Amino acid sequence: MTGEVPRFDDETGVPLNDAARHVVAKAKGRAGPAGDAAAAGAGKGVLDSVPDVDIAEGKWKYVQIELTAPGEEPKLVVRNTAGLAYHPDMYEAAMDALERQGLKQVRGRVIGGGRIEFYPKEKTCSIYGYSKTFGRAKGCNKKSAEIVEAAYPDHKVTWSDDGY
């Protein structure tokens, strides 16, 4: 599997190779090491340094990720990256960014996802749909909208479970 690029079906989101299956298993919290609760640090937690929202302008898929770190309460974040085609790619990009920031102890599990249309100049954000790869997650779009609204209180944030 080393060096293999994850491939997903464009219509169904189903993983097409071992690399893709590994990404999905990891994103669902079923692969990789699980953090060591005994390694909790003192003072401000590492999750406090992670922004709740990191989204790109335009219309993109997104994922809601539950982050965990040893000795800390879980934290929900909303993430996407411009130019990526699949929800698992969004997860991988988010986790890679945390690792590059030196936060290797942080683990993530995808709660759900859908699409976000984010236009900062117009101060609007619309969250809707679902992830074919990860399935529908009840309340995910509503909770994601609440997270985005808290991060962008001057924006009009709407959500729906309709659409893909």
UniProtKB/TrEMBL annotation:
Substrate binds at residue 61. One of its GO terms (cellular component) is cytosol. The keyword Cytoplasm does not apply. Keywords: Differentiation, Sexual differentiation. It comes from the Eukaryota. Pfam families: Ocnus. GO terms for molecular function: protein histidine phosphatase activity. One of its GO terms (biological process) is cell differentiation. The active site is at 87 (proton acceptor). Belongs to the janus family. PANTHER family: BCDNA.GH02250-RELATED, JANUS-A/JANUS-B. JanA and janB regulate somatic sex differentiation. This is Uncharacterized protein. The lineage of its organism: Eukaryota, Viridiplantae, Chlorophyta, Chloropicophyceae, Chloropicales.
